[in-house]
Each structure stands twice: as structure tokens, then as C-alpha cells.
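User: Predict the full complex structure for these chains.
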Amino acid sequence: MIVNEKVAIDHGLKKDEYAKICELLKRTPNITELGIFSAMWNEHCSYKSSKLHLKKLPTKGKKVIQGPGENAGVIDIEDNDAIVFKIESHNHPSFIEPYQGAATGVGGIMRDIFTMGARPIANLNSIHFGSPQNKKTKNLLRGVVHGIGGYGNCMGVPTIAGQTSFDSSYNGNILVNAMTLGLVKKNKIFYSKAAGLNKPVIYVGSKTGRDGIHGASMASASFDEKIEEKKPTVQVGDPFTEKLLLEACLELMAGDSIIAIQDMGAAGLTSSSIEMASKGNLGIEINLNKVPCREAKMTPYEIMLSESQERMLIVLENGKEKQAKKIFDKWNLDFAVIGKTTKSKKIELYFDEEKVADIPVNTLVENSPMYDRKWKKVKLPKKNKIKKEDIKHLKIIDVLKKILANPNVCSKEWIWQQYDHTVMGDTIQKPGGDAGVVRVHGTDKAVAASVDSSAVYCWSHPLTGGKQVVCESFRNLISVGAKPIAITNCLNFGSPENEENMGEFVECVQGIGEASEYLKFPVVSGNVSFYNQTKDEGIKPTPAIGGVGLIKNYKNMITMEFKEVDSLVLVIGKTEGNIDQSLFARNILDEKNGPPPEVNLFNEKNNGETLLKLIDNNLIKSAHDVSLGGIITAVAKMCIKGKKGINIKKPKYLINEIEYLFAEDQGRYIIEINKKDFKKVADILNKNAVHFDELGTIIENELYINDKTKVTIDELSTSNKSWLTNYMSK
Amino acid sequence: MKSSVITFPGSNCDRDMDVALKKFGFKNKMVWHADAELPKSDLVVLPGGFSYGDYLRCGSMASKSKIMQSVINFANSGGMVMGICNGFQILVETGLVPGVLLRNKYLEFICKNVFVKIKNKQNKYFKNINNEVLEFHIAHNEGNYFCTNDQLKEIEDNNQIAINYCDENGKIEDKFNPNGSIKNIAGIFNKEKNVLGMMPHPERMIDTSLSGEDGSLFFKNLINNLK
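Assistant: Here is the predicted structure of the two-chain assembly.
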């Protein structure tokens, strides 16, 4: 095939990008080379629109062993233990083929983790669908949940937490973000940097097929009505092979034969080989005839661009091939020496004894395009004044029931019961709480993880929204008694070529950066997903933040369900009555304008750290952060989970009852304490200048507000639990 | 007491079972599916997971692996063999216990705590357990037990039903049946009661911090019965 500008454009490259390729090579690339360039230079692999802004994120910290740039981030959890974690998107494939798209998203992120030598110990996910009324939503939700479960369950890794939301902006573009945590010994972490000349380059895992060719390019373009035709670009997963690959890799890693290892994810053999060479400042020579292929007559182009799953590339020490092959034979996996490292600093490919590609590595990596895209700043919207007559007729309990049954608040049990969340025997906090918690096997330590996003806040004011998501992650970890350590982010946005969407990206990233810097909660890994849009309409900006924290003794973990009648319930943090953009304003008053709740980083940090002090002093019986739906929703959930009631007395405030109960002010927690500990708790809170309200006392079975309005917890529980099950069974 | 846990390609509860058995005093060995001989054992466990990726039929390929001939001989000579979840699926495929396991009635994987009523205590697995009802944990996609009417009659005549899904008070009703199993069957024995296949995972219930402690009860009792 003759390569020209048109062919390059069909590969998703821009005119000037193609010109730059010809200039760098000082010739016209052949088709295989063009394919390689298009795979390396697309948005998904090159981060060309985001790089400039991502550089501003804080990525260092005392506990950070490895920040962004490797397969995943690594943090220190003491005693020579480390946690490897990352979140990644698989949005585009999941919309086209929900089961396989979601499944391979989970498979891909797990591979990123065990590539670094870590055994995956927990999976999480953040999934976002269109409006429940949209005719595609139900099938997409079912397919995605089956896909996530199908892969994770088979791997034997518990899915311990997640987030599901519905919003019409995802009607034509759902989001599927998968996160995995792995456990590794600090001195046994593996990296992707090749080193040494003439070292054998080994291919292991599944055979290469024609599936997923140009998957990464597809993920770098917008959807149009012909999207269904792209089904062949979706990869097909085989969790069984991945389970074997996991065990085989960990067995090989126990020895000392691996110099570098890299999984074949987006852009398959192309990106894995180039990444290893680039990091090691070396060249790589590959004989494509040696690559194990599933189908006959695959061309070099197809072999290089296939995104077949469950494959790894390894640079071995010389002379270790036999020993390594024995392990992969035992697990019935392909093992082939396909090339070697060279000093050429080029990627050189051979096929049928002919050289089919010859590209300097730096042209693909360092010289890849980087854009300073135009972007628009978003002004802080003006506050709304809620009129008394708008809320006068509202009955609090009716509103509460509606909110508890709202698709974005309701119980997601229908989803997480389909995920094996108890395999590995260390899950001590299951899905449905503030964060999932797993013990570090065989120790007293436990790791907490949560994943959060607040698209509505980010849409209304990206800077505030970006900060808020990081704070929410911080709070969720603290609510279970964990000390927050670091985050990973999955940045889901519309087109970077659209100034508004690019502005949302830039300002969300700025917000994330400010909050993570202030909270000492650095970003250690992540992923950017642009072009989440159909035709011209982008999704609401949806950065998802995956947070990880440590509980030194798992017996001190906190859960959210109310524990005991007669306990006191307090609200930590001040309630100002920020009602704009709350679930109440948007869904009950149908008011979609106004700014998101303000984020005060000082209060956020101070309130959180003070709560950790209370937990360390064994003064907390249960805790839950206040988020969607405000204080009353948080309290109702604690009642439902604990099968207890509460008598709420609204503290004297300038704001009215509705604002107090439904506002979504930040930096707040509900805590349950023993009555006799009140003075101790109040002293610690006062000493640290943390505002708190006495909210009420735990009773049996019913929720009272100011002694009069009441509802049974069973009724609330039914509202909360039935929506999703009913929706899915209709 | 010596136990052996078989690891098939795709097993994923083998480590959990190893941890549980050791916690309650077994000297456990992990045995690779391609081995020919079982080590000397008082108990052999086929653990949960997705042996051979559930391809063809759950448990079917594992039932033909090399080690299984030795497991079958061991069972036929009266040795204690317990199959949990995928292990149960493997057992039905070998024919050591009757019936088959179909896909769950609602076509969905289920992971949750369930209650089971012990139907037969005249065996080394459940003898001396005082409780009538245990809280166990299930996590499966194919746990819908099915057999022919003739088989069912035989199973009932021989008291081969080990446990049934029920509520916390031991009431066995359809609404407490998580997967559509005939007669709410959660586990069954062979005729001689030395082979037990069950869907619930007692190894996930061995600590108050986990889903519960009835697994501890089960294993403590099991090792005492074997002594």
C-alpha cells in the first residue's frame, strides 16, 4: 500500500503531523511505520493535549516510591510492603461492546499492576451511564456489570468498591473506569526500563490475533452514527489466560532473570517495545515471524497494531531463557524469543527476512506532538436564591425518600452482588460503605480504597469540582479510619479540540492539583480519556479519583452503620447551607444553575485529621462522610445499614431546616459516639478548632425530626434498595 | 491431620482454603493438577475458582486432569474428599456425587451471605455441630443444582442431601433459594458420605472481621471428627 497524506489522515493523524513524520524520517514511511506512528501519536498513547497540564500535578511525597510514567504508581505502606495502583478508562470499547469492553478494561488494569511484580488484591470501578430513560442504558449497564464481574471474578481478585452514576450527558458515551491495587515487596518491584545490549526480548501469553487493531486510535476519536461498525476494534478478553499469565509472571519474578517487563496494552507490541527501548535509551530488533499468531498470514502491520489481550513483553538476562520457558510451559502459555536489545536506538522490525520498519525511538516518543490547546475559563456561576414559597410545601420525609431512591444515591447492591468481593479472604469492608478495605495478607495492616467523581460540580465550575473530588476521596478514606496516602486519576472529558471541553480539563486538573498538594495526597498514576462525545456533544467533565489509604491495625477500622441505641450523633464540619448543585436543588427543585459547594482546603484537612485523632483514641463507633443529599441522606444510610433509628434535633442555625438537612457543604462527617465520651470528643474537636453540631440520639427503628416528623427505617430502606433492582428487572 | 488442596489452572480459592485448613490445625499440602499421586492425606479438597476458565462446562476439563484419577481412587476407598464451589462442579463431572450444576436461575453471578440448614449430621463433616443452621457465603454463577426425579428419589432415600438454603431460622422456602437449585440443595454427599460437594465457601467465614465465623465452626469440628 502506498502511503500518502490521505492514508495518514485515515489513520487519525493530522496533516502537519504527517509532514512532521516525513521530516523526522527524512522519507515517506511505509504502511507498517505509519501504523506505528499513528498508534504512538494518538491522544490515548501520546497524551499530546494533556501532557502540558498534567506536568503541574503534585506527584511526589514521602510515601511515593513511583509516580506517573510507569505501568502504575507505587506507595510505601511500611515493613517492606508497597501498594501498586492505577485507574484506567475503557469508555469507547464499552459503549460499542459493553461486556468485552468492560471485561478487557478490568483485564488491562490488572496486567498493569502485576507487570510491576504485584499480586492484585483489590479491584474497584467507576461506571457512568446515560439517563435511565434512555433505551440503551439498561443493556449497557447489564453488559458492563457482567463484563467487570466476568473478568474480575475469574481472576480471583475481589471487587471491593465502586461508583455508579446516571446522567443524560453519558447517553451516547458511557464511562467505564477500572482500578486495581496490588501488593508487592518493596525490593521486588519490576519496571519497564530495558538495560543492556543483546538481551533477549521475550513474548509471553496469548497468541496475537486480529482483534483490537487500532483500538487506541478508536479511543482517540469522537463517536458518530457509524460507531457500531467499529466493533472489530474492541478487544476480546480471556480471563482464564490472564490468570495463568499472572501466576506464571509472579513465578518468574520470584527469581532474578527479568531486566524489564511491560504488558501489551493499548497499541500492543508497538507501544510495549518502544516504551522499553525508550526508557532504557536503547534500540530493539524484532523478528515478526517469531511472534506467536492466532491467525494465518498476519501482516507486520497487523501484528504490530493488534491489541489482543493477555500478552507481555520481557527483556531477560542472557542465558535465562530455558528456565523461564519452563515456567510458561507449566502454565501452558506461549513463550517466544522474538528479538534483542540493540545499541541502534531504533526500532527495527524484520518479516520474511526483509526489514519492514526502521524508526528512531526518539521520533516516536520525545518528538511526539505536544499541543497547547486553546481553552476557555469557566466563571463561577452566581448563587441562586431559593424562595421560601418553593420549599414551603415540601415534606422532608417525602423528599428524603425520593432522594434515597434517586439513581445516583440508591443502593447499588444489584451491581456489587455480581462481583466476587470476598475471594482472597481478606475483605473486611465490602462494597456499600465509604471505602472498600482489604487486609494486607498475614499482617495487622489493611488498605482502604475508594473511587469518586462529581461530574455535576465539575460541570458547574471545573476548578471547584476538581478540588472537591480529591477532598471526597480523602474523606471516604478517613471515614473508614484510614490515613490517606495517594491518588490515581482517570480524567474523562470531551474533545480537547473544543475550547470549552479543554477548559474543563485544564481547570479540573488545576483543582485536583491544588487539593492534592494541600492535602499531601499526591497523584501517582492515571490516565486521560478525551473525545468522550458523540458528534459535537461532550460528556460532563468527569475526573474520577481513586484514593488509597492505610489502616495500621485493621481491628480499628470504622464502618458506617449505626451501632448502638443511645449513642450520640454529631456532625463534624460547618453547614453553611450550600444548596446549589445539590441533589436536592437539581432533582427536587429542578434548579440546575448555581455554583457547586465551596471547598475550603484548610477545613477539609483539619476536620479529616481531627477525625482520625478521634478514631485513634477509640472514640468513634461509626462514621460516614456527608456527600450527595446532605446530612439527612447520610444519616438515613447509616440508619438503614445499622437497622437503627435516630431522633434528630436541628441545631439552632440561621439557615432553615431544609437547607440544613439537604445542603451539600463540604468537609463534613457524621459520627456516632458513646454518650459518656462526649466531653472527650468535644474537647478534641474544640482544641483543633473543628466546628461540630449535636444532631441527635440513636433510637430503635424510626427516624424522627424534632420529635415530630417520623418514618420507619424499613420504609427508608425499601426506598433506597428497590430502585435499581426494579429498574433492571423491568 | 494431613490435608491436600488441588490446584488446577484457574483455581482461585486454593490459597484461601490453604489458609483456612492451616488455621484450624491441618498440615496442608498444595498439589498440582498434573501430578499423578496424591500425598498421604486425611482430607482432599477441590477448591473454588474457574478451573480451565469454565470452558466447555464448569469443572468438566478439570475432572479429567491427571491428579483426578488418584482423587477418585482415594474417594472410592473411603477417603474424605470435599469440593467447594468449582470443586463441587468438578465432583459432579467425575460422577463422585450425582446431579449437575446449571447456571443460576437469574443468570447472574451471586456473591453474598446465605443461611444453610444441615440436613444430615451422620457424617464426618457435620457430626457434633450443635447448630441446625449455619451462615455461609456463596460466590458463583453456576450453582443451580439439578438432577432427574429418579436421582432425586435416590438422593433422598440415601440421605445424601447435606445442606439446604434456608432463612436464619432454618425455614427452607423458595424465596431463600439464591440460584434455583432443586429442593434448595446447597450441598450433597455421595452414598457413603465421605465425599461432599457444596457451593458455599466455609473458608471465607473464618474470622469475625470477614463475612462471619461459621466457617471456623465447620473446620474446627471437621478436624476433631477426623482425629
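Residues 503 and 572 of chain A are 34 Å apart (CA to CA).
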